[in-house]
Amino acid sequence: MELVPSEKNVGGWDRTVRLVVGPVLLIVAAAALLGAVTLGPVVTAASALVGLVLTVTGAVQKCTLNSLLGLNTYRGTAEEQAEQEVERTERPA
């Protein structure tokens, strides 16, 4: 089992949500640390951790949890899809 998947498995709506929600959670955690909003230390830490993970996995398009669950929302470029189609047709049955 790989800690970081070798192939991209985050794309489309999944990536968009991660790249929107992740930074929002990081901003909330920063605001809590600066005293602009009142959150408990556990909520602040959780917000920072989850925000960081979502932002990084959205940016690199690789997620270990997706890999473990067998999820793949990455569609790839048209060239990558064409290569995969050729590989599928060239393999013996």
Shape annotation = elongated
- How many domains? The number is 1
Whole-angstrom Rg:
18 Å
Structural class: mainly alpha
Structure annotation, total helices: 4
SSE order, one letter for each helix or strand: HHHH
**Residue share in helix:** 55-70%
Biggest sheet, open or closed, and with what strands and sense? none
Poorly predicted sequence stretches spanning 5 or more consecutive residues: none
* Number of DSSP E strands: 0
Tell me the strand percentage band. Answer: under 5%
Question: In angstroms, what separates the terminal alpha carbons?
Answer: 27 Å
Look at the structure and give the mean pLDDT: 88
Pfam family, one: YgaP-like_TM
InterPro entries: YgaP-like_TM
Protein name: DUF2892 domain-containing protein
Organism: Halobaculum lipolyticum
Task: Summarize the structure in words.
This protein is elongated. The protein is mainly alpha-helical and 93 residues long. It contains four helices and no strands. The chain has helices at 12-34, 41-60, 64-69, 78-90. The mean pLDDT is 88. The longest helix is centred in the N-terminal third of the chain and has 23 residues, at 12-34. α1 packs antiparallel against α2 (41-60). It has one domain.
Q: What is this structure's SSE topology?
A:
Blueprint: H1 12-34, H2 41-60, H3 64-69, H4 78-90
Keywords: Membrane, Transmembrane, Transmembrane helix
Domain Inner membrane protein YgaP-like transmembrane: 7-74
Transmembrane segments: 16-36
Q: Brief overview, please?
A:
Keywords: Membrane, Transmembrane, Transmembrane helix. This protein is mainly α and 93 residues long.
